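Appendix B, Record 12. Input sequence as logged:
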Amino acid sequence: MKPSCFFRPHECKPATPLSLASIVSTFQDSFGRACSVADQSNSTRYWWPYPNVVRDALALTLISCAGFWSLEQAFGDGASRKWLTDENGAIETIQFLALLTTAIASVYAFSRVTAPSWRSIAFALVCVSIAGASREIPSQASLPVALESHFSAEGFLFAVSTTWKHSVIGIAVCLWIARVAYGWVKYPTDRKLWFTPSFIWPAFPFAACFVLAEVFERLGWVMAEESIETFAYMMMLAVAAWMVQNASKLNTAPPPSLTNPPRR
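Logged structural output:
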């Protein structure tokens, strides 16, 4: 070991005197490095790669329901409104078919995509669409017809038992929760996606649709309630169709971290 500078003062370098200028310079260098790291971190964000989902869902809703809305305006009596918005009415039939198509497309998307995050989204779409389709099927107790025949003056009415509906919805919810738990443990790198607003933002208008539907139901605005629910279901259908169409790109593309949001 070399002897200490205490014993050989001539080998010690003179200490740099502290000054206000040196302190400020050191602080500026440290602050600049911190800002550079922060800017680099903020430049990498996770963006939802299908920004036109709301537009496409609105287009699907208008295409599927515009004719019925026109009929409601032309024949605004109680009978026509009942045919449009009652149990097994035209709007609910569209909703059921949209949910059924979403479930089929989501199963196909789940079989094609390989990225864990997109498989989780496809699985969630399957569970939610199946639960939603079961919810849209009227229960036997809600129909003003005999439980044995399910016929009325309007024609054939399809219904299931309340126990069957609740069982299907419960199974779908349990499967979705199990998948969420599995993905949370198995793929920890995907956790940040589910807390990134720029990636999960479609979930906010989707959830808002059902809040508005509940408000419209309490106000007695049946057409508004059914229309906003149809829009929410069309959002699911649009995402499922988009995943099927872009499955190969989703498999080869890197994780959805982009310095700029995707182009519309």
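The first strand starts at residue 45 and ends at 46.
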